[in-house]
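Hello support,

Our group uses your service weekly, and this is the first time we've seen a run hang past the timeout. The protein is Noroxomaritidine synthase. I'm not sure whether the cause is the sequence or the server load. Input pasted verbatim:
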Amino acid sequence: MKDLLSIFIKYLDEPSLNDKFLVDARLNTNFLRDLMLGIFLAEKDAIASSLTFLLWLIAKTPYVEETILEELKMIAYKKDKLKQEDEDEDGVGAKWPILFDSNDLNGLVYLHASICESLRLYPSVPIIKKTIIKDDILPDGSAVKTGMQIFLSFYAEGQMPWIWGEDSMVFKPERWIDDEGKLGHDLMSKFYAFNAGPRTCLGMATTFTEMKVVVAAVLFNFNVRLVEDRPIILRPYVNLNMKDGLSVKISKRTM
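Update from on-call engineer: The timeout came from a worker crash unrelated to the input. Re-ran successfully.
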């Protein structure tokens, strides 16, 4: 499968008649540079924001942390990353810190569900704006006219009880897991943290991969405890984040 940059280069060299914006973009030698830089920067800030909220929610919900750790322990022992004979005086394997690659984490259902649940409550992009390019009628019967601007709040949608249930404000990764212990797909039709349909965020898969690797490394090697009396104040901007950041106490974890 070709990478995104290769696809754009191909279309810039051989644009179709329907890709007028690519024909115009070919006249601008900075187009590809600016496009790729925008993607990288957008992903960096979004993942940083998403990781902060995820670690905060996990630290507030001990049973979620324990469940994720149990998943990680199974992977660690399976790959022989923890060896009792190599323990140091702190009780942690000599190869500390224990790190996981993306392939290690692909099958971890609860970790994936925890990320989905965190992004449902606190999407990195809380609101987006769409401009109507053609008169249309929405499914609910509302008429929209060319040039109108519509604001969509993913933050509000992710907390609506008539969509997610009466416990919509509760951080509950289990809602994403079916009776067979697998990731359920029925909720994805309500999940707009990455937009949906043909406008789905190009960085969706990368975001999940990077968040899994970082969270696994942090939780498996460190205790993360919240600093008391530090209220969390949301700051909605281009990315949703915490006004004063997240204050935590970090200590080395012993297994």
